[in-house]
Amino acid sequence: MQEDEQVVSGKGWRMIKPDEASDTRKEVGLTEAIERYGRKRSYSVENMMEGIEATTGSTTNAPPRKKVKPAPPPPISTTVMSAAPPSPLPSPNGSPPPENIWPSAPPSGHSSPQPHAPVQPDLSLATLLTLPSLLAHFSNLPPQLQSHVLLTFLRHSPLPVLRTLHSVLTPTLARDFLSLLPAELVSLILSYLSFADLARASRVSKTWRAIIDSDPVLWRELLKTTKIWFGGNTENAFADAIFARRRRLGTPLSSSLPLPHPYKMLFKSRHLTRTRWVQNQNPKRITFPAHGRSVVTCLIFSHGRIISASDDHSIHVYCPVTGTLVRSLDGHDGGVWALAATKNTLVSGSTDRTVRIWDLSTGRCTHVFGGHTSTVRCLAIVKPEWIDVQNENGTTTREKWPKRPLIVTGSRDHSLRVWTLPRPGDDEYRCYSADDTEVDPSEDEVDDNPYHRVHLEGHDHAVRALAARGRTMISGSYDCTVRVWDIINGACKWVLVGHTQKVYSVVLDIYRGLACSGSMDGTVRVWDLNTGACSHMLQGHTSLVGLLGLSPSHLVSAAADSTLRIWDPETGELQHTLAAHNGAITCFQHDEFKVLSGSDGTLKMWDIRDGTQVRDLLTGIVGVWQVIFEGRWCIAASNRTDSTVLDVWDFGGEDGDEEWVGEPPGGLYDEDTDDEDEFDVNEGELGVDPMDQDVEVSPSDLDEAFAEDPDVAEDEEDRLGEWEAPSKLPIPTQPATRSLGSRLESHRPVRGRLLLAPADASSSSTSTRSRPLPTNDETPTRPRIRNMIPRRR
């Protein structure tokens, strides 16, 4: 095309002729100018953001889609040109139309590259320089137009810019309402969530998890709404045990999350107990032999250890995971019929009439107590706990009894005894018959035993069962009576008369002030400990009620009539009758969700709430001796034709089950509290505890006691056996007392205790014939008559 006049132009621009300019001057506002500028810029971007709506209203043609080789940008000119105004707004004469700036696409066969759109660096720089003026204009706009301007900017912003905006805006606009609201409102809001929703909410952030896990009100209400809150006593005992365990183990690292409240742990444990035992149809199970072919008389589960006792005189400790025998505790000369454990201490009672204390960590027998004249048939460890004590003026105070753990034992010699439980590191004591089989343990002078406290006499026949908590103990005897004792001062508070035949089982609830007893007369009686009256007589069984179990909501009785009955201990109402066994119930255990019962050939699980049978855990066996469960573990001892075996079930196995904390029967936990230590430290200030006094013996007393040395011969013919005692008892070769300096050097709190050395096994005796031991059924049931002649020790 021929031009009449020379056109002033350059690369990417040209001078506009006067006649090409618009005759009318049109002024535009800020919004329209920004939109026009945005439309022009959109043409120069090769890859526009996906999902961004293009600006409508433009009639110009888009540049070609063919990708061309990019050319280097031209240098920024410092000369202000007439075609590039120093303002982002259009000039009064207007800008040239885009079609004159953007040449049309060349033919397909054209080999020259397509030129780029002008970058206009001068306009960008000018816009940046006028940013304060632009912000001033933006501030003067109404909110609606400000939103429109920002949306327009966002529509034409690339993805990296949007990400930067997101990282800036998110923390500014975010508000954690749980951390800003008061704790009461937070508990109220979270109380509307289910357990599953709370578990998901605790994963939002560490702050939310700390708030949810540490809220006791939230978890207490959740326990109540799901009907697994059982009055408060067991829940408080669980919380106290968890707090005591944390104090013993120490606080966690500061960088870790705060520990959850015990109510949260309790909810999870009870939720798992309620669901896993029913839903897990194939729990892990191992079976291994134990005690040869002998009867398993006792079975307990303590601190991840299975402890079993048998009539073969042995006590075994097994690992529940592998079933391996960890330790074998040998020392009794008769069948072991009573067991109790706390931490690493085990207490056992036997037909050899002794009580032995074992260190489970080493398997060593540290103490042997003699004094009972017949089989030790039942025993219990009484841990210190807070109880309500009624004073003489009628007021009730909260006190902790006993001051330190005690042992209570019941025997066929018609009596009970109270002993102090030795602590680890306390001085050892072994009765004179412990290492000399020719010495009758019943002849041991318990007054010389610093651990013996009280001898409780009053029953007219063998003591078959006992239960003790705090200061209170109840005992059931073959004399058809139940007695209530104060184990601190030895007083008999009540003699509960009503059964017409032998009493075989008793249970105690000191929080509700009631006791229950089962008898051969087929009845179960509920007694009021405050008045000594019989509150309810539960009838329905047709034979011996040999087993009882008490939980906060249920009283369960098992009888020889092959049935179990579930009662309401408050009202005496019969709730359910469990009748599916074919023989006498030999063992059972229950909690607030289930009952496990064993009889001839089967071990069954029942739903305690509706009385239905859930499943059979064992079938096709000869008999079930014992069954226990705690948390995820269940252990049963049974007889398989010619051998005795232990079966162990693990109902856990999934992630998170490590926090499944089992609740021991009766709510008795093996966790010491700071209060127990406080009693020992401040003993001098609080006064001497009547159950924590130690015998003070002076050398003059010893000389007086040893002044006479008569030969002692005791020939008594028992009802079912003949027992012979040696004519002369051994004399300890070590001194019976120790100086104060030696006590201080031992670094053990002895507090003036009479220390007795173990008897010398090599001591002489005039009788060389060993005394025969009676069988289980041949132990005497009447008290032995002692010769009170002073004997030399």
Automatic annotation (TrEMBL):
Q: What is this protein called?
A: F-box domain-containing protein
Q: Give the top-rank taxon of the lineage listed in the UniProt record for this protein.
A: Eukaryota
The protein's matches in PANTHER family, at most eight in alphabetical order, are given as:
F-BOX_WD REPEAT-CONTAINING PROTEIN 7, PHOSPHOLIPASE A-2-ACTIVATING PROTEIN
User: Which stretches are WD repeats?
Assistant: 329-368, 456-487, 496-537, 538-577, 578-616
Basic and acidic residues: compositionally biased ranges: 16-27
* PROSITE patterns referenced in this protein's UniProt entry, alphabetically: FBOX, WD_REPEATS_1, WD_REPEATS_2, WD_REPEATS_REGION
Region Disordered: start and end of each range?
1-27, 41-120, 654-793
What's a BP term from Gene Ontology annotated to this protein?
ubiquitin recycling
Which lineage? Eukaryota, Fungi, Dikarya, Basidiomycota, Agaricomycotina
Which residue stretches does the UniProt record annotate as biased composition, category Pro residues? 85-106
Q: State where composition is biased (Acidic residues).
A: 669-683, 691-719
